[in-house]
Amino acid sequence: MRFAGTYHPLPYLLDKISDYLPGIADKYGIWKGFDGEIYHSDNINSPIKGDQRVQFQKLRDSRSKFEWKNPNPSSSHYQFSLEDEDNLTVLYLYFPSSIDSLNDILVIHFSKNTFLKNLNLHFNGITTQEKSILSGMLSNILTVEYNNVLNERDLLLKMEAVNLKKDENIQQLKSDLISSERLYSSAIRNLLINFKNKFEEELQKEIMLDDEVIFRLAKGKYALEDIEEIISSAIFLAYNLNLSSETLTITNDFIQTKGNSHNIIKEISLSPSHDKVEILLNRYEEAALKAELKGLEVNGKNVAANLSPPVTPPAITDSIKKNRRRISFLLQQFPDRWEKIRISIRPISNIDSQNRHKSAI
Fold this sequence. Notes:
- The chain is built from twelve helices and nine strands.
- It is α+β, with helices and mostly antiparallel strands.
- Among the domains are: 4-165, Beta-Lactamase, CATH 3.30.450; 273-361, no CATH class.
- A hairpin with a 5-residue loop joins strand 1 and strand 2 (38-40).
- Helix 1 (9-20) packs across helix 4 (128-203), helix 4 (128-203) crosses helix 5 (211-220) and helix 4 crosses helix 6.
- Residues 76-80 and 259-273 have low confidence and may be disordered.
């Protein structure tokens, strides 16, 4: 269903007039469209041109609100006799156009048998005074309808303008965001290139940064120190999990940011180390975290299975025995690290308990 404001008011009134005057003989309209052309209701899709346009413009140049006319154009519409008055059966209603200074016209033909419900009689039985009352009443009612259509159209146009402006603003914001992200991504890329070069020299590994990582950091709008910490953690996590690889590829899987610590593996170390035993403990802790994220009990068996490559539980026990002294030293030096394996791997737990006991004496 179309809103009234989507019509020109004159065609809208032509559709509605039968609701007010059922049984009228004929009706038509002349109006100026929103495109500036003159239209007649016989063909609302084709503007009036040439001499007929001039004729219609003269009809539109009226200072009356309504007029009764003879359906025969050659006859005078002025009242000279009762018979003349009876022949005035065509009502012209004029509505000031919103396009120019002239009027839009609604023309209604009454047959003598038209029954006027409001007056409870047929048209051929009404007096001159009743005819004036009828025309005035119709003019007032339809003028209100005409103006309501224009007001609703104005409201719809304002709403459309607001929506268009909103869409333009959204598109502009999207464009600005894309431009900002590209510029920021370029800056982040240059920063990370210098940053990773330092780690390549320190770790003696080639480091590759996935484009998705750069885009993610740019989109996150992180501070410089946060980016350095995030990438440091990612590089050392990749290093600890790929000891034998000559190239470390940093993907989104290695990126730890606030709010996703439950979805990715936690960082193991914030500083590089060439200590083989320290690296070994990092690998055990990482395997313990993997097991925990899978919902497994953290114990020697599941830690061994989640190492890369997996080993047997006895292999872990043997490795701990061989490096017991160094492990004991590292556990004392870094009391806040390797939280899982201090508790869950019995040989390491025993070493940690002995250290605490000695410290308490």
